[in-house]
């Protein structure tokens, strides 16, 4: 079945595609016109519930529809990642002029300087907050995270002259849990052989959902869940791929991966599982419950002491989703995902799962190069499937491991 | 040690080579600093300008010792520091040999707490530091090894080299690791790799973003957690008396070095920055040793002598330079070279400047509280874990305090956050009317920008401003 034909047949997927293609959409702007404020945020460690409980719409920052990095490059260097350069470029061009506030996070060295450059360039909005998330899990970090949420809550209340009650927080937690639950159930359909929703479609869905009011998101998800029942996008011989990366927001790139003979059935990406993995407890105090959820959800490599959990997640997911191969990506100059790819290479080799490591630029083109590398990788995986070729080596793997160290 | 011999390396060979062929020899030679000074001065024409097949093995070591233009009083001070490092390396190797606990401590942290548990500690980046400052070709080889194993090329070479050292079995195996989330993503990333490769229990310090009371309290809680972690892993209680002893010595080190920093404000500047940079290295590797105090005291006395006489480290001080961001590891002679060639004195820099607080050693609580705060104020740590103001505000204060004539921005490739703040720093310096040179290099990998290229850029800069 051709994926594009399939998309065009389904009205709801067309709607999602439209929303995902721009930084603003009718849902968002409609809510804005009705008086709701929009607060941008940069990372999956920012608790959206707090923003929502203030009566605002949390909006995940993105670089979609970026026309370049010319202006962003005045502030950032070519040694900085393309996500921040595109985002900042868009900010300088006024693409985010609908925001009433923006929340940064100490996610990585590149994004934390977004906070500095945003203030330095004095780009609206006036409310610019640095949300500080710990780099590790544990009791001390948990307390610190709770304290940070309290501070963030107070700052929102003070700046916007609103009150964020525990009741409002509890109600927001319920809504977001519902959204997570729906997303989880759709995501888990990837376990089936039919793969009702492709990875590229799922990314579009995530882009859309993180740019609209949660109430509309839930309605959209409920509708989608019904629509995709019985749907199949799987083609004979398709490989089942696990995608791991930081910032991926180009559905076209995922389409390329799929077009060449695969379905992305599972992931660990910012706009993927990390967004909806683990619910917030509804039985305990709201703030500590939020702290626990956001600290212990599927982590990204910014967290120092959870690498083993991430690798275990990769292994478990590959088993549950019957994954044939892993594609792990990083943006150029991303130290965190660079290190993670190293771990993925070693671990996938140990587990015998083929892995392709890709390095690329966000909206950087090079689809020809990507195509060649992905095609070659698929051929290798297929060869292994069809033969018992023990000489097979996964692409991007550690080519030196077989050379015995002369020291030994 | 030749680059081409990499593949024939025996286990721990580089570390042992450093001890036996370099540090021991230097230590002995420094018993007669005046004679060494004289020899370095006499041999100067044979090694000072260029590297060749004849001098490549010992050239950088000679240059780090001042290349015949460093005062013998300073050289005498280094002797104690070198002995402290030799002792540290030997203790680490002995611990490994005897199956005793050995803690790897990341370079941004000092190992005072380890002293209170009386086990061996090892600075994972030691080979990097001593490979580069003592001059050999193995740092690039170790970096290349890490990269060939899959460590990203763009990661900071200062920590990347540790992975290469580990793969080639050049550093002792740890029983536990103490890492930190600052100063940059490379540290976070590389220490996860090292934890994975070694499989040993690892404690991660989480540096706060801000410098308010909440943040300091959080970092203090991290130190308490570290104590709990060590007590559990080592199955022994912390020895508060030993901690008090080491912290009192740290207070002494801090006192002497703060005084040196204060004296360097004088015009002409009485101190040479290489001394403060090397003392920073000794703190990293061997802060636990009483000899670290001797080194700090020696540097203090050498500087005080000139300060009291009202003379500078160079006879004719022409330019006062502020060096911002980490100094060049493979070309430590830059300080003495600029002094000698241009009368340009580096009066303050990013890591040598001391702003650690006095540690109150009265109770365990005061010790842990002040030690934590002090750790966050170590060079690079204090500037790099938060907003850009931590960098720019200190820069502004330094410009005022040290009457600097110009600024060198050491654009280290691994410092992504530094590059992302470059426009802010540039605009600030422009507004101040401060001439600035922006270098693009890798501080620990001479393959990126060579010594000759750096010299050329600095010479051109001085010429264009009429200082040369």
Question: What keyword list fits this structure?
Answer:
heterodimer, A: 408 residues, alpha/beta, Rossmann fold, 4-stranded parallel β-sheet, 17 helices, disordered C terminus, B: 468 residues
Structure description:
- The complex is a heterodimer of chains A (408) and B (468).
- By secondary structure, chain A is of the alpha/beta class.
- Chain A has a single domain, classed as Rossmann fold.
- Chain A has helices spanning 3-9, 11-20, 26-33, 48-53, 72-75, 82-92, 109-120, 139-160, 166-188, 199-209, 214-227, 251-259, 273-276, 286-296, 307-320, 335-351, 367-386; strands at 38-41, 57-60, 101-105, 127-131, 239-244, 262-268, 325-331, 355-360.
- In chain A, α12 (251-259) links the parallel β5 and β6.
- Mean pLDDT of chain B is 94; it is low at 1-6.
- Chain B has a domain at 241-464: Rossmann fold, CATH 3.40.50.
- In chain B, the strands form 2 sheets. A 4-stranded parallel sheet of chain B has the order 2-1-3-4, sandwiched between helices.
- In chain B, α2 packs across α4, α11 packs parallel to α13 (290-309) and α12 (273-286) packs antiparallel against α13.
- The longest helix of chain B is centred in the N-terminal third of the chain and has 26 residues, at 72-97.
- Chains A and B meet through α7, α8 and α16 of A and α9, α10, α18 and α19 of B.
Could you give the order of strands across the largest sheet of chain B?
A: 2-1-3-4
Mean pLDDT of chain A: 92
What is the number of independent domains of chain A?
A: 1
What percent strand of chain B?
5-15%
Number of helices of chain A: 17
